[in-house]
Specification:
By secondary structure, the chain is an alpha/beta fold. About 35% of the residues lie in helices and about 30% in strands. Helix 1 links the parallel strand 1 and strand 2. It starts with a strand and ends in a 13-residue tail after the last helix.
Length: about 210
């Protein structure tokens, strides 16, 4: 595990040098996106007028924003679960030239394969409250589709100042930190069951019954 300080736009060399478990801090412009960014970009060919070569980091965040003295500022930036966007993950990486996605938890097989091919990573937010992440925004650079989509689904462009720490949970080699942790947990369960004489296939009480 290493600690990396990277500047946006990220290069392919930057991200291919990362491994799962690495801790990353970012400086530079990022943009936000939730469901409607993905649906519109892939299904409807509606894309915000962003220079994606200079801004190649997407945050799965619908920030809470407020206007202060004629300028926007984020109040909270709590990421949403990235697995929600697995259907569009591979396509949007290719379409927008994304080098890193910042979100909560992880993503699935198709996105992982595209990250491996294209050169992109997934960074998960662990232990950062939404207000602390908001404080790492140096400046709001702009917003797209605000009137049409509202504050949550609009695409916000912001400049991060030492944003993070973010943990690499999917790297460009096809490794997934969450999958590895789940495998370790499953193996520990088997040891636990054997130690206490719990038979394999034991069924727990269905709390929804």
């Amino acid at each position: 595990m290493a600690e990396k300080y990277l500047k946006i736009p990220l290069t392919e060399e930057d991200v291919r040098g990362l491994e799962i478990g690495d801790v990353v801090f970012l400086n530079g412009p990022v943009y936000t996106g939730r469901s409607l960014l993905h649906i519109r970009a892939i299904d409807q060919n509606i894309i915000p007028s962003i220079d994606f070569k200079q801004m190649n980091v997407l945050m799965h965040i619908g920030p809470v924003m407020e206007m202060v003295d004629d300028s926007w500022r984020p109040v909270s930036m709590a990421p949403t679960s990235s697995i929600r966007f697995e259907k569009y993950g591979a396509a949007i990486i290719k379409r927008l030239g994304i080098r890193a996605i910042i979100g909560k938890t992880t993503m699935g097989k198709e996105t992982m394969e595209m990250m491996k091919q294209f050169g992109a990573v997934h960074l998960t937010v662990v232990g950062i409250m939404g207000n602390l992440l908001a404080n790492q925004v140096k400046k709001v650079l702009g917003v797209h589709f605000l009137e049409e989509l509202g504050r949550t689904e609009a695409t916000w462009v912001m400049e991060l100042d030492k944003g993070g720490p973010f943990i690499v949970d999917i790297d460009t080699k096809g490794n997934n930190l969450f999958h590895q942790i789940n495998q370790e947990i499953e193996s520990k369960f088997k040891e636990f069951y054997k130690k206490f004489g719990i038979p394999e296939g034991y069924q727990y009480t269905d709390v929804n019954a």
